[in-house]
Protein: Glutaminase
Organism: Nocardia uniformis
Amino acid sequence: ERVAPTGEHLTPPSSGVVARIIDEVYELCRGDTSGALADYIPELAAVQPDSFALCLATADGQVYGSGDLDTAFTIQSISKPFTYALALADRGTAAVAERIDVEPSGEPFFEISLDPTTQRPRNPMINAGAITAASLVTGHDAADRFERIRRSYCRFAGRDLRLNADVYASEARTGYRNLAIGYLLRGAGIIDIDPDEAVDRYFRQCSIDITCRDLAIMAATLANNGVNPLTHERALTAPLVEQVLSVMTTCGMYDAAGDWVTTVGLPAKSGVGGGILAVLPGQLGIAVYSPRLDAHGSSVRGVKACRELSNRLGLHFL
Ligand code: DON
């Protein structure tokens, strides 16, 4: 089924083939109910486990999709490339590189992964690097710094995105490991601000609600060199898009990054909320939502659907 972006008129499909392949891949993956909901953040276990949506948005603003395209879920770790992008824009690439490296860690997202010599987090996609990136975003005060993050995500999505207060409260109540990572980073001098503030900002950014359609538009904005294809607003400069997509390629899928690159061949990011975003630069963005996760914390049906789409549409470019 070809769908119109929210509030837009449906125009004739530019390619019935794309719409048909999306529907076929959706049907193929729908029956896979393996994996489990994330439950280490209690509120994440409260979602409808069978929800499933698949959406593709092109760099010129065509949107195709199947399933629960408007079901809200929290962005979780898919926030990481976007906050990293804002930190790069605020502080400059060199200043950020002094604090966050760009080497794949090959470890799960919650590993501490600090370079033993420099103490820098290995990359901005693991939690240590993401908390550091959140600490580097500028603003008048803590509320303004989070608001700048939220607004930057809105520019990518082309719509107003809101915090899910229940998920935020749930993570803030249980996120001791992330707090520990924040304190370690503060002790090492990697973050300069109060670690509670940095980690709180990270919890908030992870708790922003999005839909699969939003995520596809965010991916298409990256594909379109940083310009939202629906609003035509610039969300990020082209050189920073390149930096962010490079880091997503090597580090976005954590300890499954090599498997992902060889089987899907696109820069991508997953989140424990069940979303996955993938980008074919210059061409299109893909988003999947299905909350049952594999051992790496990535959506089972999401990984499978991306593999199938990449194969059937010939998207593997890495
Ligand atoms: O740090 C956490 O626990 C979460 N808020 C985000 C983790 C996440 O999404 C990892 N990705 N697959």
The beta strands are 53-58, 63-67, 73-74, 209-210, 268-270, 275-280, 284-289.
